[in-house]
Prior knowledge:
It is a single chain. By secondary structure, this protein is an alpha+beta fold. The protein has one domain (3-208): 3-Layer(aba) Sandwich (NADH Oxidase). It has eight helices and four strands. Strands 1-2-4-3 form a four-stranded antiparallel β-sheet. It is globular, with a radius of gyration of 19 Å.
Amino acid sequence: MExxxxxxxTSAVREFTDDPLPDxxxxxxxxxxxxxxSGGNRQGTQVLVVRxxxxxxxxxxxxxxxxxRYTAQKTAGEGPWNAVIPTRLSDEEIAATDVPDFWTDxxxxxxxxxxxxxxxxxxxxxxxxxxRVGIVGGASVYPLVWNILLAARHExxxxxxxxMAVAEEPRLRELFGIPExxxxxxxxxxxxxxxxxxxxxxxxxxxxxRREHWEGGPLx
Length: 220
């Protein structure tokens, strides 16, 4: 596929066929994705390749607490897991919320699940002292994750970036033996899409950009 076609048709895939994603294809995907940039080219990411169904069942269970809060807040009209606006919901209201299978099915039904971790010792988190949630450290791991999804699309496969299980990171560490020095960045279920979207809805360049200053007009 042409690069721009891949970029314009790489969607969040959560429904998979029963087709396998063979190790040789996955290796090709990772072999090309690994050229993503990272801070100082320190390449501190490790990718756990998880096929074992029992481990994935436990991973799905760890997805539930984060997904339950997300679902409860969204149902209440809140911004789920927002770092700026606190929730008005009680712990009891969140605990009583049913979690749709939408959140766990991808982990259980994908051909393979990747658990992407980053070594915090080599991440330059230059926003760590600011009075807000840090996001800059993600620049050393998420370009690789997106490259994985682009490469998967090129090979006829797909997946999605999920983060609900990260809320239970200590239990993830125990499940997979992840060292304390590593943070879990995301979980990526991957497989053959049931449907391959070819037209995605995104904001326009005009809505995305501001020239020179926050009050400047868009790039048109």
